[in-house]
Amino acid sequence: MSISSFVKKIPEFNDLSASDKIDLFAYYILFETEVSQFKASDISECFNDLHLSPYSNISSYLSKYSKRAKGQKFLKRNSGYCLESNTRALIEKVIQKEFVPEPSNNLFALSIFENTRGYLTGFATEASCAYDFALYNSCFFMLRKLLETLIIELFEKHGIESKIKNGNGGYFFLSDLISKLVSENNWHLTKITREDIPKIKKLADSSVHSKRFSAKKVDIDNLKTEIRIIFEELVSLIDYPNWKK
After folding, report:
1. pLDDT tens digits, residue range 72-98?
2. Nearest one of 134, 127, 137, 122 to 107, comparing CA atoms
3. Is the distance from CB of 139 to CB of 127 less than 8 angstroms?
């Protein structure tokens, strides 16, 4: 785990004092990078990696809080320091809190799914977070799920869902859903949507089913505009505010 990912697990990390950050960096170095000891230079490197102004005298801080007295945080070793057990326990209480990522608009504007359905907002949030955390296969999976759900709900909105169901009452696979979507006469799709939905499906299918394909950021970035246009168009056609499901 990188130091930038680690600090995202710390509530209100940016509001902490530089000295409090030293304690957390010590924990990170010992237990996330799995070394037995750390030095002042290791702590300084954490500040540098995060582009933070460092504590004025890290060596002095470590020396002060390694003395046997009330408030001791560190144990001095031959070539560095380790954490005192009570300090470690206190830090673990903080970082064990569930990390809830904040979605962004880096993938697409989340406002597209406002006033739709709660589950769609959840899917969009998960896709956004997967993109932000470089989980690109997972991102494609959620994009596929959003696309599939929107197509089904467009047919349901018009009361023609029977056109996309098989003999057992289950919905078609995505490839057939797309074919039915494009050929349906109850709405008119833009050229971008008709031509680019298969592109999204192709990469999403590869992410889900191919053991040799691993999605990269550029795969999604090259389709960002098309993804936004397609989702906006389908949401608009469904017209959720006026659909009482």
Report:
1. 999 999 899 999 999 999 998 888 666
2. 127
3. yes
CA proximity to 8, closest of 32, 37, 44, 34: 32
Mean pLDDT (whole number) for 164-178:
95
- Closest by CA to 121, choosing from 155, 151, 150, is 150
Could you give the CA distance from residue 228 to residue 150 in angstroms, rounded to a whole number?
Answer: 13
Q: List, for residues 219-236, the tens digit of each pLDDT value.
A: 999 999 999 999 999 999
Contact between 157 and 241 under an 8 Å Cβ cutoff? The reply is: no
Task: With beta carbons less than 8 A apart as the criterion, state whether 120 and 146 touch.
Answer: yes
